[in-house]
Amino acid sequence: xxLAQWAYAAAEVPVYFIADPYAGRSRVFTHPQDGAYxxxxxxxxxxxTLPTDEFPRD
Length: 58
Hints:
Layout: H1 3-10, E1 15-20, E2 25-33, E3 36-41
Antiparallel strand pairs: 1-2, 2-3
């Protein structure tokens, strides 16, 4: 767990979304409790995707 992820979970931010243009993927964390997110959503019920092919990359 990163420091940022811990800080958002400790502050009980309900949804933490990370879009990583370098890896070309995104992650959604939900259900913060005791300084950690209890769920990592890798799939959505609706099959929603976030295209990252046009994100800037070095």
